Fold these 4 entries.
Entry 1:
Amino acid sequence: MRRPAALAACAVALVVAMALAVAFGSGSAGLTDLLSPGTRGYQIVVGYRLPRVLLGAVAGAGLAAAGAALQSVLRNPLADPHILGVSGGAALGATIAIAAGAGGGSILASASVPVASFAGGAAATALIASMGRAGRTGGSAILLAGVVLNAIAYACILFVEALAEPGKLQSLVWWLMGYLDAPTWPQLALTSACAAAGMAILVADAARINVLALGDEPAASLGIDVRSLERRALFACAVVVGAVVSVTGPVGFVGLVVPQAMRRILGPDLRALLPASILAGAATLVTCDLAVRLLVPVVHTEVPVGAVTALLGGPMFLVLLVRSKAR
């Protein structure tokens, strides 16, 4: 009964968070404006808040799912797309594409940025995974490699920014902070489709990924093709992270905080942990974005949601790191 109750609670939290995020914001429009087509309030709710809330839900769900899967595949409870450099690699790919003039309103024109983002995220994921396998490195070494990879990726991003046109530089800087804005419907459709495909692969392989916790040899003796499963899971994570980062920029620590919280409630079984992380991750990022929008009249600017998630996730990462070393 514990798992169904937890999943139901996460689903309710997501519905409530999305309803509040659509109803409230820096403006005076509300849910009742949905009944008044053609009005300014209707345009705010449907044209701006709704796609932004949907993007937040997709991004939060995807990052949390990728974090939960990476923690299981790499057998490291501190694994996170942002910490391991996957988001940094995806951001570098997207930055190069944006600086080169990619993107646009149609699905075909918008696809170039997610493709470049996926390529960067996939390269970073493959590098981290190969280092972990080749050297049999421990959790701390993999995390250190991720930090170094992040530093290299952001150094390359700074180089690209220095060469970018002045008109694109400001938007690139803002995007790299981790920013949720109202996407175009083609952007939202493409991002949602890629993230859903990646999460579907992870959910379908959840039971087999569980077996990896036993080790390579025991998993292989049970009929699991370990390397094929790892490649498939890492590919799915790269698809999800690449799609999300191409639109929102690198939003950190959602993939660490949410799976860790759900793991404490439900345990390590991915068959329950993944769906719960998907729902809770969506609710978490939507709630953080709502807080950002409600603070606009107070601080007179919109704080990037990536700053909020970093403030929440950074201290938790330090606590988890200290506990991990103590063990």
Entry 2:
Amino acid sequence: MQLSVVIPTYNRLDSLREVLPTLLAQTVDASSYEIIVADSHSTDGTPEYVRSLAQSLDPGRLIYRPGAYSGRAAARNAGIAAATAPIVLFTDSDILASKDLLESHVRVHEACAPNVAVVGCELQVVSLDDYRAQRDNPELRKPLHPANRSRVSWLYFLTGNASVRRDDLDAVGGFDESFTGYGHEDLELGYRLEKHGVELRYEARAVNFHWHPVPYEEQVGRSELAGVSTVRFYRKHPDVEVMAKLGMTPVSLALHSFLRAATPIRNAIERAGASQATPKKNTWPYIARQIAYQYHYVSGVKRALRETNGAKT
């Protein structure tokens, strides 16, 4: 057993039906890895599907771990606790794996010193057709990092495609389960791993495909929750680097105050951002959308700061 794959999930049966087959059809030997699904008591048929699929496989290939998890951090910790392999790979129930995803992660771990975590290439897809097109035509892909990048900072430790040695996870205490809202439980773990001396390696060949297009209004809500998580992160690690990398700076706070006061400008930005389902990059609707997301992100930061200081929200 080389690798334990941990997937937190909650009511994502439609995507999980597509995701698990990609993880079961890997280029590595089937006996060299296990898949652990940590389910927060889904009510959409997930328990029946996973258990039925597990029964059709060799014992131990697919492990179902339901629980009353308070969030993704708690679900992932349950997966870590159930893992039997020395390396734990984190992914999600809406992320489809390339056929050599696990092989690529294991290859880097075997080639590097023990204190290494691996971050793979996570590509965004808007549909199953888009997934198949990018899977079969690499020229269509738009990765976040250049292929020749070898290292990343904790800011890019995204647990949709990251693997860590079990010993290193145990040494830093796993995920912080106080991150129960949206955002940053993975970055905060990456921060602690980096401070513990774990090098975060980037592997462009470890590819998976994130199939979860988020509507504008939902992303607005997520942005504000991420701002709340930023304050929690900073309170735990009062580090200037955290403030700078997560955008909790005097400049961002001042720009937010300007937009909040300039109601007509802010409303125009919001309307433009919401005007198209998938605006093309470098167009005004796309730019407006990014500004709006940042505005709501800083709104979350300010709300959390007020709450932390005991002020009235």
Entry 3:
Amino acid sequence: MARERTWDPDVPAPSWFERSLATPMETARIDVDGTSVSYLAWGARGAPTLVLVHGGAAHAHWWAPLAPLLADHFRVLALDLSGHGDSDRRDVYSVTTWADEVLAVAGDGGGSGRPVVVGHSMGGFVTIATAALHGTELDGAVVIDAPVRRPDPETMEGVSGGMFRAPKVYRDLTEGMQHFHLVPPQPCENGWLVAHIARHSLREVEGGVTWKFDPGVFTRRTGPNRPSEYGPLLSRAACRVAIVNGADSTIVSDDMRAYMAELLADSPAAVAGVPFVEVPEAQHHVLLDQPLALVTALRAVFGSWRPVGAPPVSVRPPSD
């Protein structure tokens, strides 16, 4: 049975969205461990660096409408993780390699200082790994609706490739977009925003168009790839950390929020304080449900990290 589409592409877009997409944007590529990684950039060169990381099977253009709203004070960079978007594919994927890609883009993107990294869903796991493995090189990390789960030996969990079968080929962009669905599925009132990411989720191939992402990002993985494996990494975060969730998320439970708070209470990040923010009227896909509220939440987090008159906070590295 075909899944019913839960978004309306004919809903008119608001003016802020049109202005954002009209904002000048740069494209660039960088080689990371033998693989070409694509990224987008907004804002003035030399401004503080902000790196935005998409979720699984997604791409940098998920962030394109929001990035210009953060570019007044940042050099904003949104990358396509390898195996996603316009980046090349790898034989094997790992969250540690994706963390290396985040740092490489941050260093190549024309910004200044230690970067702030913001990641959604699977990109939140990448952000956690970056904060744990390279936290002393970051100014801060924001994790958006990533379900860090308590270890439970009785629960069989994992990242299933079953939802991402070999991609079909569609006749043209219009037909392909008609088959775009959010994963995990949820309704979204902002059809103009979903249509934007659907359009950038497809690439031309012989006979038509198909999805850009490599299904192997879910099936050819090494290292942590289960939600319960990210707790130890989160507890090692060696930079400032903030947690942002959709208030109505069905992916991140109250127990997961409590578990993350427990982990961070004893982490190196605790010295700086760890804000937990819930975005009202947002499910898992916070970027699509409440884009302006998410921008406001991020601006508030960044502002809290730089209060007027307060001395800088030094986050101690984790001890082995």
Entry 4:
Amino acid sequence: MVENQVHEKVDASGSGLLLAPDVWTMTLLMVNLCFIGNPHDRFNKWVLVDAGMVDSMERILEASAERFGSASTPQAIILTHGHFDHVGAVKELAVHWDVPVYAHAFELPYLTGQSDYPPPDPSVGGGLMARISSIYPRKAIDLGNRVKPLPSDGTIPFMTDWRWIHTPGHTPGHVSLFRDQDGVLIAGDAFTTVKQESAWAVLTQEKEVHGPPAYFTTDWKEAWRSVEKLRALHPKIVITGHGQPMYGKNLSEQLDALAKDFDELAIPDHGRYVH
């Protein structure tokens, strides 16, 4: 996949990028989600990865109807993790479509009402998005028996040729999704392509590789290991939870630098979870 094969698509439900015939990503407010499936495939099978923020359901339904047809439903919803900006519409969508939800086993306590996430740290990151993070929701949601653990062998239900990679640090059960045949990586919040702590950076969406959102990252050693793990894959295209997709030389050089100097580029000098 090269840059001239990436096509921008804008529709009534938000802006999106077609990064491969079966990989389409859209941004809702400040977070990205992915539709995996080729609408020209006669079986019309597809999967939703992450579910945006609260009140995103109608826009996701509009986008899925435009891409796959109004009568089409996904085979499943896959979650990179359970933070509020990735699961906002998941419960409504799972019920509406009557489909299962899959996440890492370590993430299930936050998705079945058993455990709330640790509190955010507004002191890290140095931007408005970080400073107001104390108001972000962190309570568990309860998906009941709709949510299931991802298979332990690394396969992803209904996503042939993809595999999940455990990339903890931002959350205990954070996963990234990778397809070896074309190097497409869905990284969730293991790292980002925007300085998510800064409101200005979020508004301007300048492409730049950064660490995971600092205010919600609770294990920095694991976060570093996760970035090293993803860098070792040498991804060709990366879709992160926040920021625009990246590919080519800028991606490889910046991801190399982040993995090498994560302690300087990503880990805060101080904070609740730094030590």
